[in-house]
Design a protein that fits this description.
Subcellular location: Cell membrane
Strand content: 25-35%
Bound molecules: guanosine-5'-triphosphate
Shape: globular
GO molecular function: GTP binding; GTPase activity; ribosome binding; translation elongation factor activity
Number of strands: 34
GO biological process, one term: positive regulation of translation
Radius of gyration: 28 Å
Structural class: alpha+beta
Pfam families: EFG_C, GTP_EFTU, GTP_EFTU_D2, LepA_C
EC number: 3.6.5.n1
Distance between the termini: 56 Å
Strand order of the largest sheet: 11-10-16-7-8-15-12-13
């Protein structure tokens, strides 16, 4: 298709505002999926995505659409829907000329949508505002059209009202995509450059890479090079998704499609990288490439130690499809052998944790998430700390912690409680905008460490679920942080060490000592449970001694019953960890790490 008849667009929407449903309706109306084959949410392939209702991996579908007798190719590029994947969202947007801003007409715009809208505007995309779910009696398209229009600086009449469910308004929307979004530009004769906006591992075909060709042309069987690494590969197949992969005789400037080179790992085909021809390489890559950088770290341990090799295998497999996942072996006195893992954020951690448990059937426990600190010791040495165990002993000269620029969107009645929450979390108010009388956008600078510890849950429970949050990482700040250790009978329990703000050290110590006292069974001697900063104890609880005589219950002669009881106790001992001469059932550690 000549570039002038191509339109590349994506849909920006908050979770549940109906992106998948609308995409499905478009596939059906353009005739590439017939109603019989139509299953809900055709584009969301992974089960987890469907169940959790989030789109993790973006894809691109080509749809034919005829307007005023002219045939067009509409490429719909799916964007992931969560903060942790904002770099992937950014690259998907960079593959488009326009975006549909999809807003649920019963809810209005959300923080997530705003953040992605700002990103689309930075990428100079044409925005088509759309109000969805107008079939619902509770829909208020006029009210939210006002809100969206004032945000975009357009007239409310420019918002188009649709229902992804019934299909109402969707043909008009397809027409507007053709008439309002500009056709892609690019130099057909220049050396080829294509931007990777997604890459997905497929067990049968290896890595499938999604690209937007910016200049020149890519042809099947030619050798291509990845510009960030210089590695080159033969193009085994190139084509478009419509809606199944369909090989073509190449892709030219302006087109969107997929390519397969036989690489086995998404790290060899990275989002944001530029693909060029190996025989006539472009002099410079496209702008905007960045390595994925894990920001949140956590130890992941099998609950049953014999699952350790299986856990390693699971991580190896998951990594094929996830360029941002990092891990290395680690071991803990309390939890045994496991892995220190790096993630883009909390949701990323959650997804990996769930996939390990569900797809690989391994029960695991994760230690409290930690961010990346830069510590300068008194000796002037700089240490990167992603794990409390790496925190230098003794005095430190300087600690920097990562910061986030957070946007909170809330009904105005909850402004007070949210400000209080942000205050407690060491936030700095940067500004406040009223989107309408009832809805307020708050801007805060917040330490990332404060966001990764149940901030989101707090936000939701304080606002009955009505507020939403989005954040971008930006910069770092000096912070007064200390490492708090938990000691059992004077010996540290490594899995519970944490780096916390000095002002919060005391309450953390109190909370954890209480928790452990309640979870660890009494033993035959008294056990102190302490929290300490260095050698200074800041909290203490005591587990009182008990004489545990399992045989006391058996009156007299029943020998076999006694033996059974003794064996049962021995069995239990196997699952015990001994710390400071104290026998602790692993379940106690697991419980202490999970119950919030
Ligand atoms: P994620 O994939 O989780 O980002 O969600 P999404 O934005 O793709 O939303 P999805 O299409 O899954 O729709 C969310 C819910 O809204 C589903 O229960 C849909 O059935 C419903 N829904 C979507 N569009 C409409 C609509 O036009 N009218 C009505 N009544 N319901 C809709």
């Amino acid at each position: 298709t000549p570039a002038e008849y191509i339109r590349n667009f994506c849909i920006i929407a908050h979770i549940d505002h109906g992106k998948s449903t609308l995409a499905d309706r478009m596939l059906q109306l353009t005739g590439i999926v017939d109603a019989r084959e139509m299953r809900d949410q055709y584009l969301d392939r992974m089960d987890i995505e469907r169940e959790r209702g989030i789109t993790i991996k973006s894809q691109a579908v080509r749809m034919p659409w005829t307007m005023e007798g002219q045939a067009y190719a509409l490429n719909m590029i799916d964007t992931p829907g969560h903060v942790d994947f904002s770099y992937e969202v950014n690259r998907s947007l960079a593959a488009c000329e326009g975006a549909i801003l999809l807003v649920d007409a019963t809810q209005g715009i959300e923080a997530q949508t705003l953040a992605n809208l700002y990103m689309a505007l930075e990428n100079d995309l044409t925005i088509i505002p759309v109000l969805n779910k107008i079939d619902l009696p509770s829909a208020q398209p006029e009210k939210y059209a006002q809100e969206v229009a004032s945000l975009l600086g357009v007239e409310p009449e420019e918002c188009i009202a649709v229902s992804g469910k019934t299909g109402a308004g969707v043909p008009e929307l397809l027409d507007r995509i053709v008439s309002e979004i500009s056709s892609p530009e690019g130099d057909l004769d220049a050396p080829s450059r294509a931007m990777i906006f997604d890459s997905v591992y497929d067990i049968y075909r290896g890595v499938v890479t999604y690209v937007r060709v910016k200049d020149g042309r890519l042809n099947p069987r030619e050798r291509v090079a990845m510009m960030s690494t210089g590695s080159s590969h033969e193009l085994l197949e190139i084509g478009v998704i419509a809606p199944e992969p369909k090989p073509t005789a190449g892709l030219a400037a302006g087109e969107v499609g997929y390519l397969i080179t036989g690489v086995k790992d998404v790290r060899q085909s990275r989002v944001g990288d530029t693909v060029t021809s190996a025989s006539r390489p472009a002099p410079a890559p496209l702008e905007g490439y960045a390595d994925p950088k894990p920001m949140v770290f956590s130890g992941i341990y099998p609950i049953d130690g014999s699952d350790y090799p299986a856990l390693r295998e699971a991580l190896d497999k998951l990594r094929l499809n996830d360029a941002a996942l990092q891990y290395e072996p680690e071991n803990s006195v309390a939890l045994g052998f496991g892995f220190r893992c790096g993630f883009l954020g909390l949701l990323h951690l959650d997804i990996i944790r769930e996939r390990i448990e569900r797809e690989f059937d391994i029960s695991i426990i994760a230690t409290a998430p930690s961010v990346v600190y830069r510590v300068i010791t008194d000796g002037g040495e700089e240490v990167t700390v992603t794990n409390p165990s790496e925190f230098p002993d003794g005095k430190v000269a300087h600690i920097s912690e990562p910061m986030a620029k957070a946007t909170l969107l809330t009904p105005s009645e909850y402004v007070g409680t949210l400000m209080e929450l942000c205050q407690q979390r060491r936030g700095n108010l940067q500004g406040m905008d009223y989107l309408s009388e009832e809805r307020v956008e708050l801007h805060y600078d917040l330490p990332l460490a404060e966001i990764v510890t149940d901030f989101f849950d707090q936000l939701k429970s304080r606002t009955k679920g009505y507020a939403s949050l989005d954040y971008d990482l930006e910069g770092e700040q000096e912070a007064d942080l200390v490492k708090v250790d938990l000691l059992l009978n004077h010996e540290p329990v490594d899995a519970f060490s944490a780096i916390v703000h000095r002002e919060k050290a005391y309450s953390y110590g109190l909370e954890m000592t209480k928790k452990l006292r309640n979870l660890i069974p009494r033993q035959q001697f008294e056990i102190p449970v302490q929290a300490a900063i260095g050698t200074r104890v800041i909290a203490r609880e005591t587990i009182r001694a008990v004489r545990k005589d399992v045989l006391a219950k058996c009156y007299g002669g029943d020998v076999s019953r006694k033996r059974k009881l003794l064996e049962k106790q021995k069995e239990g001992k196997k699952r015990m960890k001994t710390i400071g001469r104290v026998d602790v059932p692993q379940e106690a550690f697991v419980a202490a790490l999970t119950s919030e």
